[in-house]
Amino acid sequence: MIDMAPNITLVVAIGVLFAAGVYLVLERSLSRVLIGVILLGNGANLLFLVAGGRAGRPPIVGLADERRMSDPLPQAMVLTAIVITLGMTAFLLAMAYRSWQLQRHDEVQDDVEDRRIARLAAIDERATADADTEATRQSLDEEAEEARDEVDDGLVREGRPEGNQHDEAQQGDEHGDEPGDEEVTP
Amino acid sequence: MSDWTWVVPLPVVIPLFAAGLTLALWRRPRVQPVVSVSALVLVLLSSVTLLVLADDGPLVVDVGGWAAPVGINLVADRLSALMLSVSSAVTLCVLLYSLAQGRDDDEESAPVSIYHPTFLVLSAGVANAFLSGDLFNIYVGFEILLAASFVLITLGGTRDRIRAGTIYIVVALLSSVLFLVALAAVYATTGTVNLAQLALRLPEIDPGTRLTLQVLLLLAFAVKAAIFPLSAWLPDSYPTAPAPVTAVFAGLLTKVGVYAIIRTQTLLFPDGRLDDVLMWAALATMVIGILGAVAQDDIKRLLSFTLVSHIGFMLFGIALSSQAGWAAAIYYVAHHITVQTALFLVVGLVERVGGSTSLTRLGGLAKIAPVLAILFFVPAMNLGGIPPLSGFLGKLGLLQAGVDAGTPLAYVLVVGSVVTSLLTLYALVKAWNKAFWQSPQDEPRPVSMPFGMVGPTAALIVVGLVLTFAAGPLYAYTERAASSLTLRTTYVWAVLPDGERGEGESADVSEDEAGEHDEPAGGQAGDPAGAPAGGPADEAGDDA
């Protein structure tokens, strides 16, 4: 009977990998997302090792007692998963590089069309709202219209507003002021 | 019948082989199309053969001759064969369309030499996911088609496509990780990833653990299938890709997710404990998706939102957990693949003639291109569910199954789907009016519509109409498919004739391994607390 009690070291490692991975995936920069994806993938791979039960002898028939062998199947699956993750990582890396080539940063941008729709909705809102009774509180649509993306580069609205209140000021600002930036903007 | 099992791997093997060939022929842009078209024609032929053969019972192939639970197996039952036939017909039409587009346009949408290999790999991945009788092989199928789709969605590497592609790729990778986690959990619990063996073993394990596995798998598939609230990535990423790419994505990729949900829900988790949750998810997908579509101005985005919305219909059918519900859902999937792909292809033509996909800019196309008006109108009405088209039949089947179920929630869903159909009709008629009837803003430039593009689009619409005219036999087929899904034993006994091993040869080792494989399940059944990810248990004994 295979001992299925998981190894505490592995379990903790999986937890750490997943936590760090999730944190990084939530970032805006594609290279951080990439590292996050790698960590998540490795966490999943370790999970497979745990799924295979206790580590044992190499699973080659005739070398060891069958009861003491490791389960080879999850290891084969992990190998497949590693190869796939490798390919995907390479592609994501190439894309981050392409994004940097095009726009001098690798941040994931907001959807322009989304905000255009939100602006249309905000116009409708103003047309129908009763200005006398309604408080000056902004509606959600208006907030969506005002909210802007640090990597927007004036694609949607003309001119960059002055106050850039974003947390990742370094990347966004540096590039925004670069002269080459305007050229790529259609 | 067993003589015919060699057909089963063909839909996977032919495109993969042809992909290698087209890649080797990358300097010969004239030969590439010949190879890929003939490969996809062969795939279509073998899929239709499977469709006919599978009606007599599932066809099983143990890949490499390894017996089922140890080796990987491919299974073509009625559901897989039907999905495979519809999807290969659609892929072929889209390929022909993109060839004509490549000939006539020299713009960025023209297929570069990498287009053919990736398109073929995509088709192989889809076929692999449909045919696989092994959960891990479904994952591999997903990854094959995802890798190909990554290349296709960023084709040309323009600024917009990189932006849209980023979202698509990151979401796809996350759902893959989720799927992997689910797989690890499944293996840790049952000691197998073979679908048939899982169907036998899962009832033995602790219900709580089983529910966890079900939720994990459903989450992974729901991202792929774009079920609300996991659907936000789809309308954001699909519209920027070239028209044929969007068309094939819209037709196939989400449906692979839906197929995986049908397969796992029916075969592995037949007790339907999450049906109520799925019902609510279906309702939200339908209503929120279609409200998004109504708000859109860009016609490609509008269609992407209707795509999300109509996934809700299929989910509704699945969540009913009745034979009628499943039959309707399967029919609806077949209908929706053809119709949605046709609509995206037509929009590609609209973009070509009108020079835009924005509904405020388009106009007056009815005068310039009356054929186009008809080409758009028929699938649009079909999607909206106007009788007697196949969309109407599919929705009617769903509504009937919903009323048969008779629970208050089912009635809510019935009302929801009627409202969604009406809103779909509204959104599409609005789009049609604006694109074809309103007076154009700028003077339209005369553009020819090459027959190579109109032909495949029309062919696809005809396939949609065939689904209508042949609805009797087809619906009977989906009902038979649903009944074998309900039975489950057909599938399981086809894969594992004696309940233990498949028909492959794994010679002497088989007895040893059979013994070894059974043990984790036995251990887990007795001791469900040892499930993975269940928190840190005490440390394992020292390694041997």
Automatic annotation (TrEMBL), chain A:
<feature type="compositionally biased region" description="Basic and acidic residues">
    <location>
        <begin position="154"/>
        <end position="178"/>
    </location>
</feature>
<feature type="transmembrane region" description="Helical">
    <location>
        <begin position="33"/>
        <end position="56"/>
    </location>
</feature>
<keyword id="KW-1003">Cell membrane</keyword>
<feature type="region of interest" description="Disordered">
    <location>
        <begin position="127"/>
        <end position="186"/>
    </location>
</feature>
<keyword id="KW-0472">Membrane</keyword>
<dbReference type="Pfam" id="PF00420">
    <property type="entry name" value="Oxidored_q2"/>
</dbReference>
<feature type="compositionally biased region" description="Acidic residues">
    <location>
        <begin position="141"/>
        <end position="153"/>
    </location>
</feature>
<feature type="transmembrane region" description="Helical">
    <location>
        <begin position="6"/>
        <end position="26"/>
    </location>
</feature>
<dbReference type="GO" id="GO:0005886">
    <property type="term" value="C:plasma membrane"/>
</dbReference>
<dbReference type="InterPro" id="IPR039428">
    <property type="entry name" value="NUOK/Mnh_C1-like"/>
</dbReference>
<feature type="transmembrane region" description="Helical">
    <location>
        <begin position="76"/>
        <end position="97"/>
    </location>
</feature>
<dbReference type="InterPro" id="IPR050601">
    <property type="entry name" value="CPA3_antiporter_subunitC"/>
</dbReference>
<comment type="similarity">
    <text>Belongs to the CPA3 antiporters (TC 2.A.63) subunit C family.</text>
</comment>
<keyword id="KW-0812">Transmembrane</keyword>
<protein>
    <recommendedName>
        <fullName>Na(+)/H(+) antiporter subunit C</fullName>
    </recommendedName>
</protein>
<keyword id="KW-1133">Transmembrane helix</keyword>
From TrEMBL, chain B:
<feature type="transmembrane region" description="Helical">
    <location>
        <begin position="33"/>
        <end position="54"/>
    </location>
</feature>
<keyword id="KW-0812">Transmembrane</keyword>
<keyword id="KW-1133">Transmembrane helix</keyword>
<feature type="transmembrane region" description="Helical">
    <location>
        <begin position="167"/>
        <end position="191"/>
    </location>
</feature>
<dbReference type="InterPro" id="IPR001750">
    <property type="entry name" value="ND/Mrp_TM"/>
</dbReference>
<dbReference type="InterPro" id="IPR050586">
    <property type="entry name" value="CPA3_Na-H_Antiporter_D"/>
</dbReference>
<feature type="compositionally biased region" description="Acidic residues">
    <location>
        <begin position="505"/>
        <end position="516"/>
    </location>
</feature>
<feature type="region of interest" description="Disordered">
    <location>
        <begin position="500"/>
        <end position="544"/>
    </location>
</feature>
<feature type="transmembrane region" description="Helical">
    <location>
        <begin position="6"/>
        <end position="26"/>
    </location>
</feature>
<feature type="transmembrane region" description="Helical">
    <location>
        <begin position="277"/>
        <end position="295"/>
    </location>
</feature>
<keyword id="KW-0472">Membrane</keyword>
<feature type="transmembrane region" description="Helical">
    <location>
        <begin position="450"/>
        <end position="477"/>
    </location>
</feature>
<feature type="transmembrane region" description="Helical">
    <location>
        <begin position="326"/>
        <end position="350"/>
    </location>
</feature>
<dbReference type="GO" id="GO:0042773">
    <property type="term" value="P:ATP synthesis coupled electron transport"/>
</dbReference>
<feature type="transmembrane region" description="Helical">
    <location>
        <begin position="409"/>
        <end position="429"/>
    </location>
</feature>
<feature type="transmembrane region" description="Helical">
    <location>
        <begin position="136"/>
        <end position="155"/>
    </location>
</feature>
<feature type="transmembrane region" description="Helical">
    <location>
        <begin position="79"/>
        <end position="100"/>
    </location>
</feature>
<feature type="transmembrane region" description="Helical">
    <location>
        <begin position="302"/>
        <end position="320"/>
    </location>
</feature>
<comment type="similarity">
    <text>Belongs to the CPA3 antiporters (TC 2.A.63) subunit D family.</text>
</comment>
<dbReference type="GO" id="GO:0005886">
    <property type="term" value="C:plasma membrane"/>
</dbReference>
<feature type="transmembrane region" description="Helical">
    <location>
        <begin position="211"/>
        <end position="234"/>
    </location>
</feature>
<feature type="compositionally biased region" description="Low complexity">
    <location>
        <begin position="526"/>
        <end position="538"/>
    </location>
</feature>
